[in-house]
Amino acid sequence: MQLDVDIRSKSFENVAGKRHDVLDGITFTLNAGEVGVVFGPSGCGKSTLLKILAGLDHDYQGQVARPPGARLGIVFQEPRLLPWRSVEENVRLVAPHIEDIRLSTLFEVLELSAHRNHFPGELSLGLARRVALARAFAVEPDFLILDEPLASLDNALAGRLRDQIATLVASRQMMTLLVTHDLDDAVRLGDRLFFLSARPGRILHVETIATPRAKRSEPEIDEIKMRLSQLDLANM
What we know:
Elements: E1 2-13, E2 19-23, E3 26-31, E4 35-39, H1 46-53, E5 61-65, E6 72-75, H2 87-94, H3 100-109, H4 125-138, E7 143-147, H5 155-170, E8 175-180, H6 183-189, E9 192-196, E10 203-208, H7 218-229
Parallel strand pairs: 4-8, 4-9, 6-7, 7-8
Antiparallel strand pairs: 1-2, 1-3, 1-5, 9-10
């Protein structure tokens, strides 16, 4: 199973009719079991790219080939939960036939067992993000999109949620694409890192990390981050 991406250009016009180029040359593949990370400055087109890959935006030049029948799971920056439904109801809404034992296991991994009857208004941002993750994994996705899932969380909470994401991603052979602005998250969670330029976004550098995610030592992670932080992306 493989995702093939070849976006030659993406632009839009504002109300005054002025054209704005958003993406310019995004080409890569993503295989089952692989985590790709899109890393780049704010406003470079990362969210636009995800909308195209999710099939929510068809107005672009190029082609995106998703495996036929591939199930899609998405976690947006905002959890987008239905406020009048409980945590469990929000998850079952997308996976009405999920087995009770599987749902309980999912809630246990994400530390949601005590919150399954709570409503979104009773949850912190961190808990709401976990519910969004549970909802995405409940459909047993073949292609998982994560849009800044750790943004706006304190370091301790972000670290715990990152570990939970790593556990769930490792449990299923799927294609995963993560958007983040945090290099530490990118190196810990990703197999291939795609560094984007400022708008219009294009891929400046692709970093492949050979060591499996679960086997990366802290010294190796620090060395990779140090090397990547010294890339002269502005002159690429």
